[in-house]
Amino acid sequence: MRKTSFVLAAVAAASFALVGCDVQKTREGSVDVPKYEVSKTQEGQVTLPKYDVDAPKVDVTTEKKEVEVPKVGVYTEKETLTVPKIDVTPAKDRDDKVAEKK
């Protein structure tokens, strides 16, 4: 249980960190792809096989049965845990040296 809540907190923190990003394009990109020419050298023919399939008949119904079911008591108690605390400052609001490089 503790591991699950820690993982959920980490995923939430990563999501908040991505929302706070400030992205600036610093260079234009370009892509040159090679050019190809393709020509047909012969005619093609495709014949797909045929199948006759007889599927089984399936009937799904319900019926009442009496079975023994274990009963478990559920209780909670307070416990002090160490959990991550995450503060996110969006990039445009930062006041450190990294944000000044814009």
From TrEMBL:
Full protein name: Lipoprotein
Alphabetic keyword roster: Signal
Keyword flag Signal: yes
Signal peptide bounds: 1-19
Organism in which the protein naturally occurs: Ramlibacter terrae
PROSITE patterns for the chain: PROKAR_LIPOPROTEIN (PS51257)
Superkingdom of the organism of origin: Bacteria
